[in-house]
Amino acid sequence: MIAFFKAIPFGAFLTVLVALFMGSGGATGGMLQIFAVDVLLPEYGIDFGFYWSWMLFLAGTFLAFVFVLMIGD
Predict the structure, then answer these.
(1) Inter-axis angle of helices 54-71 and 2-24, to 10 degrees?
(2) 64 to each of 11, 39, 61, 73, how far by Cα in Å?
(3) Which of 32, 39, 44, 48 is spaced 20 to 30 A from 69 at the CA atom?
(4) Is 42 exposed, middle or buried (CB count within 10 Å of its CB: 0-12, 13-18, 19+)?
(5) Residues 15, 57: contact at Cβ < 8 Å?
């Protein structure tokens, strides 16, 4: 169970990295359903955007989970 929680940050990093290249090129990735996310919190001076895909996050987290299990937790 701990290996799964160790894999989540790696899945998120992989998702942001892959979605950045695909989304900035205008592709939606078909089944990956990449979309733009805008975070706007003017009271804190935060305004940024990124690309995200839940399907890619799940696949990346599963891949990282398998790697963490192979390493030996």
Answers:
(1) 140
(2) 6, 27, 5, 12
(3) 32
(4) exposed
(5) yes
Tell me the per-residue pLDDT of 45-71, one tens digit each, with 9 for 90 and over.
999 999 999 999 999 999 999 999 999
Angle at 17 between CA 44 and CA 35, to 5 degrees: 70
Give me the pLDDT at residue 73, please: 58
SS3 34: coil
Q: What is the CA 9 to chain-centroid distance, rounded? A: 8
Residue with tokens 């955007």: 49
Question: To which residue do tokens 């701990």 refer?
Answer: 2
